[in-house]
Amino acid sequence: MNVFTISRNEQHQILDNARIAVFDFSKTYTESLNLHNFFSHEELEDIAADTACKAVQYLESYDPDKKGLFTWVYKIAMNCVKDAVAYKLKRMDISHSFYEICGDYEEVNLSEVVTDKKKGVCDEMDDLLDEDRADRN
Predict the structure, then answer these.
(1) pLDDT digit of tens for each residue in the chain (137 aa)?
(2) Number of neighbouring beta carbons within 10 Å of residue 73
(3) In angstroms, rounded to a whole number, what is the distance separating the alpha carbons of residues 30 and 53?
(4) Predicted TM-score (pTM) of this structure
(5) Which 8-state DSSP code applies to residue 65?
(6) I want to staple 77 with a disulfide (CB 3.0 to 4.6 A). Which of 10, 21, 70, 125 is the partner?
(7) What are the Cα distances from residue 95, in Å, to 46, 101, 105, 119?
(8) Which of 82, 59, 83, 81 is nearest to 72 (CA)?
(9) For residues 24 and 21, what is the distance between their CA atoms, to the nearest angstrom?
């Protein structure tokens, strides 16, 4: 199936399926990780849009004889949600490490951090992340 051969109705169906799948799976998945209310509504809409884009991008790999459209889109949504959770947790981990080094956000003068030529926050952050990785191994 080619992107140019699907109707406008089928394009809307892919988007609707993506939204349903993302909202459904993200709730189940994040709660299984004990991350209640992990994504905002806007973040879920972004993930649904990513899912729909990937579905359209890989539409040629869809085989209606193997599975239904919703099942296929749901599988893509699962992967998009898992990637988004991993990305957000990584960003939260980096932010947490940054605040451990720098203290409260209001107390941090970012211009000093960026222009400091000595061992700066980025170097300290790298050291902290290296120590964290070593502790995990």
Answers:
(1) 444 467 778 888 888 999 999 999 999 999 988 888 899 999 999 999 999 999 988 988 888 899 899 999 999 999 999 999 999 988 887 766 655 555 554 554 444 444 444 444 455 555 555 666 677 66
(2) 26
(3) 22
(4) 0.64
(5) T
(6) 21
(7) 22, 10, 10, 19
(8) 59
(9) 5
